[in-house]
User: Fold this.
Amino acid sequence: MKCGNLDEIKRPDLYTAYLATSTQWNGDLEVLARVRTPVYFAVGENDSYYGSEPLKRAYAQLNILYEEQGLSETEINELVVLDIKEQHYFSERGYSDQHAGGLAFAFDESIMGWLFEK
Assistant:
């Protein structure tokens, strides 16, 4: 999802869910956690551009923020998903590069099913 202006980025309450793929998180996770917008992080373990560490960190930070709000593990798992794909996922879909292979997420029934059920 691309946001048209900076105000949209600061308003996670305008969205029912967010799919972050092959990227890093640059927004304010506290704002996101406050409105409890569900987020699905999908990335290759060895993404050639960002690697997987930035999304792993964002996932961990969101978990901490939700724990501080008193949410249960089940409730947190409904709000934030971390899906790290190994090379075979991309190779099976015709991609040698994991970052470019992030395009495959748009055709993954499991990932898109999560997004559209929100």
User: Anything to note?
Assistant: The first strand starts at residue 18 and ends at 21. The chain has a mean pLDDT of 90. Residues 40 and 81 are 5 Å apart (CA to CA).
